[in-house]
Amino acid sequence: MIRLCDNRDFEAIWTTINDGAAAYRGNIPADRLRDPYMSHDELQHEIDHGVLFYGYETDGQLIGVMGTQNIDHPQSPVTLIRHAYVRTSAQGQGIGACLLAHLRTLASRPVLIGTWADATWALRFYQKNGFHIVSREEKEHLLRRYWTVPDRQIETSVVLADEAWQRQNP
Predict the structure, then answer these.
(1) Cis amide bond preceding 36, omega within 30
(2) What is the mean pLDDT of residues 40-63?
(3) Which of 25, 105, 131, 159 has the smallest set of CB atoms within 10 Å of its CB?
């Protein structure tokens, strides 16, 4: 079952993110990897800045989460998919695809996703689900416009866009 998470889910969201982020070990630049991957304060900051988390729940346990954040930029408002993680024990079962499909039905504007360039499994996943990697120049522009991330993260990331973005920005 997919549902909107609330304050009672904070610890389960945090645990899911950090468990799912174990896949990054040995795959993303070492200087970008921390333990835990996301702190409680960082998660609270994301929620405070408009990230709504949806969870995939089975048997009363949250096993996958994905956030959505509407950015009301005056020239081109977008929806960002943020912090998509599935617990290690549940990966490869279609949970991420279900969450992504659900969030896409809620989006009324173009959807963008940022992820690590070296997370090849994530890139394949998003491409399989209809997203396209934007050019390096566009990536840098989009990350600076819609995200608040350090230069090193911009350097080591990619942005993927849905068809609506592609149509509006040929």
Answers:
(1) yes
(2) 97
(3) 105
